[in-house]
């Protein structure tokens, strides 16, 4: 945790460090932001490459791979969960009881739920710490002119799933590249942009849709409400950067300059929150941790729909298959004459 604190502190101070975290989050997008930072830190301490595919000891065995002798585990934070039964009481209140317990008289069973009850350390290993059957991993050298419209449509689908229409117009509000109207549930994108720029702007606006609505209590606490747009813009641009990076589109120079005001935005938001409430101002690390968690959670929600190449840092279930150019290629199967086009071999 001390190491995580140090990483987040550097990310606040330096846009380049923040971008490194986003790069790793784009590769390991199925992991939380905190766990991405922890994995990066531990791999760096070993003097090895950044993590690419991470799984537990037994999960690697299920894929025909074994942890190399002498390798030490990487540690991530995993939830402790409990299964409970939720019931609706006659007075209209809801109550949770242990599974198997008898419900109170007159109560209506509303089914079972899984709750997070705490947190624990979980040992995992990167693919570079294992040997055995190669894994087939889809990869992308960047989207083609044919694939960009598909990304656009999947991004628009995320917007529609959240009740927002998407309009491409030359009559853009304030002549900005993009605008999210929460009152009208509408996202506007500049019609003068090329297809890749439109996808980038829509991904940015989705960051606002997912994170900065009227009920964004966490954002208000840390200064990313409508009264403090600086931090909200950093969050939205970070979401866009992560989503595009996962799809093989590197907009580093634009995002690097955009994030250059990161530290100042955090300080301003912190001071504003302190002046408006009696609450003790959050530290820079508190804010960085919150923002990283929000950005990675929003990015994951988007990427689960847009389905980028790669595995997001987690190997699929042993019985699951990978979709490769319309054909089914199973994880853990070594090809006869090298990997098919669009695939890379992971692990030694």
Quick overview of this protein structure:
This protein has 348 residues and is an alpha+beta fold.
Task: Please describe the structure with a list of short key phrases separated by commas or semicolons.
348 residues; four-stranded antiparallel β-sheet; three-stranded mixed β-sheet; 11 helices
Q: Assess the beta-strand content as a share of residues.
A: 15-25%
Mass-distribution shape: globular
The strand line-up of the biggest sheet is 1-5-3-4
What Rg do the Cα atoms give?
22 Å
Sheet having the most strands: 4 strands, antiparallel
- Order of helix and strand elements from N to C terminus: HHHEHEEEEEEHEEEHHHHHHEEE
Portion in helices: 40-55%
**Uncertain segments:** 319-348
- Give a count of the beta strands, DSSP E runs of length 2 or more: 13
**Class per helix and strand makeup:** alpha+beta
Mean pLDDT: 78
Distance between the termini: 30 Å
Number of helices: 11
